[in-house]
Amino acid sequence: VARRRAERRGLASVRLLEADATALDPEAVRTALGGPADVVLATYTLSIMSDPAEAWRRALAAARPGARVA
After folding, report:
1. What is the mean pLDDT of the chain?
2. Which among 12, 25, 26, 39 counts the fewest CB atoms within 10 Å?
3. pLDDT given for residue 45 in this prediction
4. Burial class of 44 by CB neighbour count within 10 A (0 to 12, 13 to 18, 19+)
5. Average pLDDT of the residues in 2-14
6. Residue 8 in contact with residue 39, Cβ under 8 Å?
7. Which pLDDT belongs to residue 21?
Protein backbone atom coordinates (compact mmCIF):
# COMPACT_ATOMS: atom_id res chain seq x y z
CA VAL A 1 0.00 0.00 0.00
CA ALA A 2 2.71 2.49 0.98
CA ARG A 3 4.73 1.76 -2.16
CA ARG A 4 1.70 2.37 -4.39
CA ARG A 5 0.89 5.60 -2.59
CA ALA A 6 4.45 6.89 -2.95
CA GLU A 7 4.50 6.01 -6.65
CA ARG A 8 1.09 7.58 -7.23
CA ARG A 9 2.28 10.80 -5.60
CA GLY A 10 5.52 10.84 -7.58
CA LEU A 11 7.70 10.51 -4.49
CA ALA A 12 10.76 9.10 -6.24
CA SER A 13 13.07 9.76 -3.29
CA VAL A 14 11.01 7.58 -0.92
CA ARG A 15 12.61 4.21 -0.17
CA LEU A 16 10.59 1.57 1.61
CA LEU A 17 12.03 -1.42 3.40
CA GLU A 18 9.95 -4.26 4.80
CA ALA A 19 11.65 -6.08 7.65
CA ASP A 20 11.05 -8.35 10.63
CA ALA A 21 11.03 -6.04 13.67
CA THR A 22 12.22 -8.81 15.97
CA ALA A 23 15.30 -9.46 13.81
CA LEU A 24 15.90 -5.95 12.46
CA ASP A 25 19.59 -5.41 11.74
CA PRO A 26 20.28 -1.66 11.96
CA GLU A 27 23.41 -1.95 9.82
CA ALA A 28 21.51 -3.81 7.10
CA VAL A 29 18.88 -1.06 7.16
CA ARG A 30 21.56 1.61 6.69
CA THR A 31 23.07 -0.37 3.83
CA ALA A 32 19.72 -0.94 2.10
CA LEU A 33 18.61 2.67 2.48
CA GLY A 34 21.96 4.37 2.00
CA GLY A 35 21.87 5.70 5.57
CA PRO A 36 19.72 5.58 8.69
CA ALA A 37 15.94 5.58 8.38
CA ASP A 38 13.97 8.83 8.63
CA VAL A 39 10.85 6.94 9.70
CA VAL A 40 10.42 3.49 11.28
CA LEU A 41 6.84 2.28 11.45
CA ALA A 42 5.55 -0.91 13.07
CA THR A 43 1.80 -1.25 12.66
CA TYR A 44 -0.32 -3.64 14.69
CA THR A 45 2.68 -5.69 15.73
CA LEU A 46 4.24 -4.65 19.02
CA SER A 47 1.34 -5.92 21.10
CA ILE A 48 1.86 -9.48 19.86
CA MET A 49 5.67 -9.66 20.03
CA SER A 50 7.37 -11.71 22.70
CA ASP A 51 9.94 -8.92 23.28
CA PRO A 52 8.54 -5.56 22.15
CA ALA A 53 11.27 -3.66 24.03
CA GLU A 54 13.93 -5.34 21.88
CA ALA A 55 12.00 -4.45 18.73
CA TRP A 56 11.94 -0.79 19.87
CA ARG A 57 15.68 -0.88 20.59
CA ARG A 58 16.35 -2.21 17.09
CA ALA A 59 14.03 0.33 15.48
CA LEU A 60 15.70 3.21 17.31
CA ALA A 61 19.15 1.91 16.34
CA ALA A 62 18.11 1.84 12.66
CA ALA A 63 16.75 5.40 12.76
CA ARG A 64 18.62 8.66 12.42
CA PRO A 65 18.61 11.04 15.41
CA GLY A 66 15.31 12.89 15.41
CA ALA A 67 13.59 10.31 13.19
CA ARG A 68 9.99 9.31 13.68
CA VAL A 69 9.65 5.88 15.24
CA ALA A 70 6.12 4.65 15.73
Report:
1. 90
2. 12
3. 82
4. exposed
5. 90
6. no
7. 84
pLDDT at 68: 93
The one-letter amino acid at 18: E
The one-letter amino acid code at 2 reads: A
Q: In this structure, are residues 35 and 27 in contact, taking their beta carbons and an 8 Å threshold?
A: no
For the residues of 3-44, what is the DSSP string, one character each? Answer: HHHHHHTT-TT-------GGG--HHHHHHHHTS-EEEE---S
Residue 29 carries which side chain, given as an amino acid letter? V
The DSSP letter of residue 45 is -
Neighbours of 50 (CB within 10 A): 7
What residue type is 20 in one-letter code? D
How far apart are the C-alpha atoms of 58 and 49, rounded to whole Å? Answer: 13
